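Why does residue order matter? Because the sequence determines the fold. Keep that principle in mind as you read this record.
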Amino acid sequence: MAKQTTKLEQLEKIKEKIIKDDICPELRKGAKQMVFGDGNPDAEVVFVGEAPGKSEDEQGLPFVGAAGRFLDEMLNLAGLKRSDVYITNIVKYRPPNNRDPYPDEKAAFLPFLKKQLEIIKPKLVVTLGRHSMEVLLPPGLRISQSHGQPKRYKDQVYLPLFHPAAALYNNSMRQTLVDDFARIPRVLALLNARGSRAGKADSTGLAAI
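Structure:
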């Protein structure tokens, strides 16, 4: 019988393909290393940010700078640890000067992010900021209106949240993020209770859970 590949091995193959295909070479040249993802490959919750920053580029791990420390704090408040979840970004190389990733960069890395999610099979994908929300959910959603509201789309449940960095520059955003984060255990409990059942989808394909 052929040896079954583990999720970690499958994730490693995605990382190798990004290198082999030389995705976004200009970003690669300006970065110290790839920041692929980190955490539990069997996680019920996957967090998706936009791209690595300076600290992430130096350490090769997602969300390890100031925004990452706030993320850890919110995970703790929600009764979660990093070892419980998986954390990644759409774009796997740091953009110059921490600029926003360009649409073509997000498009180039999106198939690899989707493959990561296919392998991990989380019950809940938490998008951190508008960039990850916009690539994973239907167009037209606004983070200012959709944050903290779980939605099912194409058989996956998403919870759009503001990016933790928003609280670093806007103190009033801090409590909003903490309140939205506190919904994660309740959403998971609801999903475990309901299974695959969902409300009726709207014209965009979104459905309430």
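The chain has one domain: 8-208.
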